[in-house]
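Thread: "does anyone have the structure for this chain?"

Original post by V.I.:
We have the sequence but no experimental structure in hand. Need at least a predicted one for the grant figures.
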Amino acid sequence: MDQLDQKQLEQLKQQQAQKEQMEEIKKSILTQILTPEAKQRLANIKLVKPEKAELIEVQLCQWAKQGKITNQLSEDELIKLLEAAEGQKKQETKVTFQRRKLSSDDDDDI
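Reply from O.Q.:
Generated one for you, tokens below.
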């Protein structure tokens, strides 16, 4: 029982270390590709919508690794990317309502 707990504790420590290492790599990449103003904008977004900021950070890191971002992004460029991403999200969302007819809703009674 004690060995099992120790193995689980060791695995948790390894996972935490990997997570911290990935976080450091992400911070390093973002520092290279974002101006200080853009980093501040992203930090502000992270305060309000942490999930959205995380997705943006991952996307920016992927673009940097793929070579799609060659020089630092300014705050204005980051805003344009955010607006474009928001526009795509809005286009994907569609809600339709289908009203079911009940027997009491028949127009034949009138």
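V.I.: this helps a lot. Helices lie at 2-33, 36-48, 50-66, 75-92.
O.Q.: and The radius of gyration is 24 Å.
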